[in-house]
Amino acid sequence: MITDNHGRKINYLRLAVTDKCNLRCFYCMPPEGLNWIEKKELMTYDEMLHICSLLVNNGIEKIRITGGEPFIRKDMMQFLAALSGLKGLRQVTITTNGVLTAPHVPELKQLGIQSVNLSIDTLDRDRFFSITRRDELPNVLKTLDALLQHNIETKINAVVMDGKNTEDIIPLAALTKELRISVRFIEEMPFNGTEAHGPGLQWNYIRILEKIKETFPEIEKISDPPFSTSYNYHIPGYKGNIGIIAAYSRLFCGSCNRIRITPLGELKTCLYDDGVLNIKDLLRQGLSDDELKRIVLLALDHRPKDGFEAERKRKEKKPVHESMATIGG
Predict the structure, then answer these.
(1) Range 291-296 average pLDDT
(2) Which of 117, 132, 176, 198 is most buried per CB count within 10 Å?
């Protein structure tokens, strides 16, 4: 078991396999995209499997595959098959925008993928285009249908943005009436790939909940699972649940059980830090697994207490602005 210097158990890795994405969501990156990472700088699948195996052998039980968009990367299904076979790994989950995912869903089910987070910020096709700069909502909804047909646990992630999709909060929440899904509303964060990320948060978790209560006053608080990033709710008589993630407010930091590895191989012990070491580079230098383990444990022994401390300790004393595509969504 891995613990940090605050006594928190670390058993969850978020692994970003690429920074590339086939959408251009304005809250994640500029219209022209990013300066994509060169192929030689990306972790290879063998390197990712090596790192994952090392971490699983030392207490990581759950790995979430993120991007960018994971299914852009060639041979992703072969990698998922190999990853799912790691002894001691209890759960592999995926975060995807759903544009390319639907054809892979049957195989995901066969591999034992237990849960998929699907990004849907709006159910309106015109607003979807306005937010993502791409007309892909029909393909995303095909993925949602396929996940439900194959009984894969599905969580819809919707970033709440002032003046962009607040009118979608109620239609998205209403999906839980007939669908056994979790619709999770996320506070907008500053990770948009540009220096100027605009004014402070307009829609925090309190305002989001108040908006939902206007239409569903009977909504009830339900228990939150261990290490949950969301406050969870249920509308009586509905099949699914609703969650609200205070990502900007950083209210879940106290029980954080996760670390991240970016597409470059950088280890992030907090979403808001700027990387504490590069595992890929150490691996390519020929360090042994024992040496890698020692270095990773040392990094976790200096982990910030929360996102605010991590932001204060960043090497570059500038406002946070990286794209989530380069961090791992």
Answers:
(1) 95
(2) 132
Q: Give pLDDT, residue 260.
A: 94
Question: The tokens of 279 are what?
Answer: 């595992």
318 vs 312: CA distance, rounded Å: 9
| Largest separation between any pair of C-alpha atoms in the chain | 59
* Residues 122 and 175 sit within 8 Å (Cβ to Cβ): no
Strand partners, 20: none
Tell me how far apart the alpha carbons of residues 164 and 131 are, in angstroms, rounded to a whole number. 7
Copy the structure tokens of residue 83: 């990853």
Order across the sheet with 12-16: list the strands: 220-221, 230-234, 241-245, 182-187, 153-160, 115-119, 91-96, 62-66, 12-16, 258-261, 266-268, 277-278
Token pair for 148 = 């439900």
Lowest mean pLDDT across 71-85, 159-173, 312-326: 312-326
The average confidence (pLDDT) of the chain is: 91
Pairing of β 182-187 and β 230-234: unpaired
- The token duo for 280 is 């890929």
Instruction: Identify the CATH assignment for 2-327 out of 3.60.21.10, 3.40.50.300, 1.10.260.40, 3.20.20.70.
Output: 3.20.20.70
Q: Which two tokens stand for residue 84?
A: 């799912």
